[in-house]
Amino acid sequence: MTDSSEPRTALTRPLSTVAAVGLAASVVSALWARGASTPFWATAVGAVVAVVQLLAVAYWVRSALGPGGNVLWRVLFSLLKLAVLFGGLGWLILAKVVPAVPFLFGYAALPLGIVVAQLTAGAAPTRNHSIERTR
Q1: What digits encode the pLDDT tens for the residues 97-109?
Q2: Would you tell me the crossing angle of helices 37-65 and 100-107 to the nearest 10 degrees?
Q3: Which candidate, 1, 128, 125, 114, places its Cα nearest to that of 54?
Q4: Mean pLDDT in residue range 51-76
């Protein structure tokens, strides 16, 4: 495995788990609403926003922890991401495009999916950091 593909594979499990939890939340909300489509779609929109948020944060962290880089770009990206997130969420809810509670139920897939991904990942490989003594 090459170094450039390692961050992508490390992100595959959390992304797929967040998406699966979001899908499950959407199905549960549709069943809870007895087949009504509005809670299902609002929950699905929340889940999609959660997956996109995870991708944006992963991209930002990868660039922030990577070698070099422009600090101004990181700050502008952070401000833009927050403005789009909060502005978009505010518009979706205040304009009544989606109901707030089902939307937030879908957005809860982000923390729940990350936790589930970590719990199902298994034990991390251990490294021996001890220094061997030579005689």
Answers
A1: 888 888 999 999 9
A2: 40
A3: 114
A4: 80
Would you list the DSSP string of the chain? Answer: --TTTHHHHHHHHHHHHHHHHHHHHHHHHHHHTTT-HHHHHHHHHHHHHHHHHHHHHHHHHHHHHSSS--HHHHHHHHHHHHHHHHHHHHHHHHTTSS-HHHHHHHHTHHHHHHHHHHHTS-PPPP---PPPPP-
Give residue 89's identity as a one-letter amino acid code: L
pTM for the structure as a whole: 0.75
CB-CB neighbours of 3 under 10 Å? 6
Q: How far apart are CA 93 and CA 74, in angstroms?
A: 28
Two tokens, residue 92: 């979706």
Taking the C-alpha atoms of residue 127 and residue 124, their distance in angstroms, rounded to an integer, is: 9
Q: Name which of 118, 113, 119 is nearest 16 in CA terms.
A: 113
Give the model's pLDDT for residue 1.
Answer: 42
Residue with tokens 């991904």: 117
